[in-house]
Amino acid sequence: MQRSDTPVYLQVRDQLWQWIQKNQLGSQERLPAERELAKHFNTTRVTIRQALGQLEAEGRIFRSNRRGWYITPRRLTYDPSLDIGFYNNVTEQGLTPGTETLSKFLIEVPDWLTEISGLAEGSSIYYVLRRRSIDHRCVVVEHNYINPKSCPGLLDQDTDLSIWQLLREKYNLVPGQRNIEIFPQALTGDEADALGVNSGSAGLYMQRLTLDKSGVFLEYDREYWLHDALKVIVQVNEK
Q1: Pairing verdict, β 97-108 and 124-134
Q2: Cβ distance 130 to 190 under 8 Å?
Q3: Angle at 25 between CA 52 and CA 44, to 5 degrees
Q4: Based on C-alpha coordinates, what's the Rg of the chain?
Q5: Hey, which of 41, 161, 175, 185 has its CA 20 to 30 A from 88?
Q6: Structural domains in the chain?
Q7: Rounded CA separation 163/165 (Å)
């Protein structure tokens, strides 16, 4: 029984989720239009939008611009302590990975990256912008900054594949240290556009600094994820 002081939109949220489960709607299956849902649950469009927004915030459904509401696929499990790339991680979990290189250039190292990387002002760095998908749903935009001294000619290679697999197999590069930060951050601007969501939508930001075995800068990544696409799990083995 719902408490009498429970807001109406939360009551509708519960009814809507029960209806979704009862009808066994699967991954990326589309929900009826808001008008139909409002009629079915005998409520207003405003209330049904609030209920849908609550389920979206919980990561249970997602909105595709100009297309409607859909059931969120199961989250990708990510363990930052493991040395495993996006492609292998997605494939091993029975999902289909996809990568699209949006642009790649040799640029001057940005001012904000000089101190982080240890590269001199005015030096060059590879910049690769990619959009990646899981089961044909775009989930992350990646900004990759790579030290060209470690991998000359990288931009001539196919960057739609795993960059780190390429670095290992062609350039014999192995990460010696990774520093990773993850925190919530709204998706705005180009990242929101690339992922097909409204500016201000909930997101997850990840940055990764990678050094080689000698402590020399190799790569710096900035990743903007859909908030409902990733589940971070770290396994700790007690000694």
Answers
A1: antiparallel
A2: no
A3: 30
A4: 21
A5: 185
A6: 8-71 (1.10.10.10), 76-232 (3.40.1410.10)
A7: 5
Token readout for 80 is 């930052």
Burial 188-208 (b: 16+ CB within 10 A, else e): eeebbebbbbeeebbbbbbeb
Tokens of 26: 């699967």
User: Three-class SS of residue 3?
Assistant: coil
Nearest to 116 by CA among 107, 106, 125: 125
Cβ proximity of 167 and 220 under 8 Å: no
Question: How many other C-beta atoms can be found within 10 angstroms of the C-beta atom of residue 162?
Answer: 18
Residue 113, judged by CB atoms within 10 A of its CB (0-12, 13-18, 19+), counts as: middle
Instruction: Pull the structure tokens for residue 189.
Output: 């601007």
Locate 134 and state its tokens. Answer: 């899981």
Q: Bridge partners of 199?
A: none
pLDDT per residue as tens digits for the range 221-236: 999 999 999 998 887 7
- Per-residue pLDDT reduced to its tens digit, 98-155: 999 999 999 999 999 999 999 999 999 999 999 999 999 999 999 999 999 999 999 9
Encoded amino acid at 185, one letter: Q
- What angle is formed at CA 17 by the lines to CA 37 and CA 229, rounded to 5 degrees? 105
pLDDT of residue 1: 43
- Other Cβ atoms within 10 Å of 50 Cβ, number: 17
Q: Is 48 helix (H, G, I), strand (E, B) or coil?
A: helix
Q: How far apart are CA 29 and CA 16, in angstroms?
A: 15
Strand 68-71 relative to strand 76-78, pairing: unpaired
Return the structure tokens found at 128: 């690769």
Contact in structure between 80 and 86 (CB atoms under 8 Å): no
Partnered with residue 126 across adjacent β-strands are 106, 146
